[in-house]
Specification:
Blueprint: E1 6-11, H1 17-24, E2 29-35, E3 39-41, E4 46-48, H2 51-58, E5 63-65, H3 73-78, E6 83-87, E7 105-109, H4 121-127, E8 132-139, E9 149-156, H5 163-187, H6 218-227, E10 235-237, E11 243-251, E12 263-266, E13 269-272, E14 279-286, E15 292-293, H7 294-299
Parallel strand pairs: 1-2, 1-6, 2-5, 6-7
Antiparallel strand pairs: 3-4, 7-8, 8-9, 10-11, 11-14, 12-13, 13-14, 14-15
Helix pairs in contact: 1-5, 4-6
Length: 310
Amino acid sequence: MTAPLRLLFAGSPRAAVPTLEALAGGPHTIDAVITRPPTPQGRKRILTPTPVEVSAVERGLPVLHARSLTPLQDELIEREADLGVIVAFGGLVREPLLSAPRLGWINLHFSLLPAYRGAAPVQHALIAGETTTGLSVFHLTEGLDEGDLYAQRPHPIGAHDTAGSLLDRLAIEGASVVADVVDRLAAGTIEATPQEGQPTFAPKLDRADGRLRFTESASTISARLRGTTPEPGAFGELDDGTVVKVLDATIGHDGAPLAPGALALDGRRALVGTADRPLELVTVQPAGKQAMSALDWMRGLRDRETRRFA
């Protein structure tokens, strides 16, 4: 019978929770869960733990707070774990911690490496208009997502997927893949293979990446909207500088041609012109207001006929 492993787990967001839960429900022991400290949330700025911490506490697992693993290096080395597992923790693992666990560290990455190395692979895949992505479990090295691969799984991208919906599915699928890799590492029945192909990169997005430019095609705008939803969020800027968040939109299949950025009501549709065909706005959030129907927003917009998105 294969002896269970002693694990370290590092992760913070919701996408890391399925893997933590899969490992906690398996034969192995989680010696420590490393996650980011609680942060102020909401209007009342209440200190709120990460989703990973909430899950770990529910399962009685020991939690350590850190924004990177370096401050905990000595403590983690002293735990003499067999394997470290990282999912969406952020930052690189350096020596001597990198080689401290007997089997090293593995990482769940949400792309088919070497494509989309970096912090935002799901978002960049959507923005690029990909129809397929996937996940990779690899042996961690000091390089950025450069390690040898233990497992990969392709995953289709739906026409209406957002970064949020796609990441949720990948996180669930990835949990079972990680659990299988850990079991096979414990049994000594798996070997990693080098990544093949030319790498591409997916750096963290900032607010500016969510700006929609209506001089582009409708499909390009739709891809950016889906890739930046829910974070950092997509938005358009009217000709007077007013920012309008775009929460949902679809590509119009008919309607009179509109100049890029021009606004129009077509029955019960709120349309905006692009480089080719109209984009139908479904849900928007004007500056300083709650999310609302784009139809209601456009109906209430003064001088609608002369207004446009810049």
